[in-house]
Amino acid sequence: MSSRTRLNIFIEPDHAKRLDQLAAHKGVSKSAVIAAALASFLSPDAADQREAAFAKRLDRLSRQFDRLERDQSILIETLALYVRYFLTVSLPVPEGQQDAARAQGRARYAQFVEQLARHIQRGRSLVREVHEEAFPDPAGLSGTDGLMPSAPDGMSPEAISPVSTQEAFDGPQAQ
Predict the structure, then answer these.
(1) How far is it, in rounded angstroms, from Cα 21 to Cα 118?
(2) Contact of 70 with 131, CB cutoff 8 Å
(3) In whole angstroms, what is the distance from residue 90 CA to residue 93 CA?
(4) Residue 156 and residue 72 share a domain
(5) What span, in angstroms and rounded, lies between the C-alpha atoms of 88 and 90?
(6) Model confidence over 141-163: pLDDT tens digits?
(7) Domain tally for the chain?
(8) Looking at the structure, do residues 30 and 64 belong to the same domain, yes or no?
């Protein structure tokens, strides 16, 4: 006589089909597959394993979010500095030369879009290059754990306040 208890259960047809396929693929009985699944589900370690898996995924998402936030800050500062610089050094275009200036602007924009497309197709990231230049990693460990490279003198990049556009053009303000 067997030490097992017989159960009659009802499951969804899709689950029954998947159970048949898995049992055939593994070369075991359907009872063995169900017993293993039930043991895993009822195991006190199962909850810990699920929690660890969730924590790992949340950590990965947190690091990805941190990189996105850093990249966005770099892009915003870059755009702000460029706009301020452009508006500072650009001379007004005389009335008679505005059509030629617009045509030249369209040509330059088309060239910019082409360069951007080539840059992206090569898989390069200007934001990453700027960050690597700003925070060099002499040990070459940047990116191994998905975190930002370390900043000089052991400071985290978050601890270094970004330069405002005013400071970039006028120098730091006296405090």
Answers:
(1) 47
(2) yes
(3) 9
(4) yes
(5) 6
(6) 555 444 443 333 333 444 334 44
(7) 2
(8) no
